[in-house]
Amino acid sequence: MTTFTPREIKNRKFKQSLMGVDADEVKGFLKIVAAEFDRILTQNAQLEKRLTEQTVRSTLGTKKEAEKHRQTLEEADKAAGEIIARAKEEADEIRRDAEREVAELRRRAEREAHEKARRETALMLQQAKVMADEVLLNAKQKAEKIEAEAREALASAEAAASDFERPLSVAGPGDPDDGEEMGSEEALQNFDTLIAEARVKAEAIIQSTRAEAEMVTSSLIGRTLGELNKEHERLLAAVQNAVHKSEEIVKAAREEAEQFAVRRKSDAVEQCNAVLLEAERKAGAIFNSLRSQAASRRVKPAGEAKPADGGRKASPKFQ
To answer: What gap in Å lies between CA 35 and CA 33, rounded to an integer?
Structure first.
């Protein structure tokens, strides 16, 4: 289709014929069409300019929005990093507090265990000493009694020996009762043997009693130390259990802090992506709206325009 400018329409020349239309009317109509066409072209140029400006503004706005949201995303990422750092610091602080508390509990438990062990040891040793003293006292009393009985028997034997010796000394040498003298000497020897045996038995009883007392004392001390060792091991096991539980608490707190930081970062990224998508959607809607408005205002082809006289079509020559 041939394109005409308003000037070409206005200055268009037609061939003259006897059966043609009114030349003045044609010229007037062409002036009107040229003016309307000029107005439409001007309006179309203005619309295209406005569309271009709006597109530029929309593009700039979209870029600004994108830059803004990029900054928001960076800030969110930075905030997420700060949250993670703070969470780690809090977890480390919790762990340090737990370790300090566990160390203090351990020191206090060991202190109390040592103090309790010292008190119980002192008490048990005191009880063992009392029992040992009682055993030794009983043994000593028993030994003294046996020794006294032995001494008494010895004294009786010596007295009896003296009674035998006096008659012998009075009788003098050459006494005819030599057989009786020999019997007295034999009796004295028997008494000496009995006294010696009594002394040996008394010493053996004393030594046996002393050994028994020492054995009882050693047994009491050994039992006391064994019970103290068991109590100490029990306290150490309780301290180790407390340390293990505190480490589990610290580990759980650290994992929870890291998971919380990851969730916060993920939420921030999702929000930023949603904002960017919404901005792109709005920019596209604005651009489509402006393009539709510009398309609706475009000029129709010249062959479809109606004449200004209310319905009379142009002649074939004009077409």
So the answer is: 5
The answer as to whether 314 is a domain residue is: no
User: In this predicted structure, what is the pLDDT of residue 318?
Assistant: 35
CB atoms closer than 10 angstroms to residue 208: 12
Express each pLDDT in 176-234 by its tens digit: 455 545 555 666 566 667 667 766 776 776 677 667 767 766 776 666 667 767 766 77
Does residue 45 or residue 205 have the better pLDDT? 45
The answer to whether residue 312 is domain-embedded is no
Q: 261 is written with which tokens?
A: 């930081």
Alpha-carbon distance of 176 to 111, in angstroms, equals: 91
Distance of alpha carbon 178 from alpha carbon 180, whole angstroms: 5
Structural domain containing residue 249:
6-304
Residues 239-243 have a mean pLDDT of: 65
Q: How many domains does the chain have?
A: 1
**Residue 108, in any domain of the structure:** yes
Quote the CA–CA distance of 208 and 181 in Å, as a whole number: 41
Q: How far apart are CA 253 and CA 91, in angstroms?
A: 6
Q: What is the pTM of this model?
A: 0.34
3-state secondary structure 223-277: HHHHHHHHHHHHHHHHHHHHHHHHHHHHHHHHHHHHHHHHHHHHHHHHHHHHHHH
* 118 within a domain of the structure (yes/no): yes
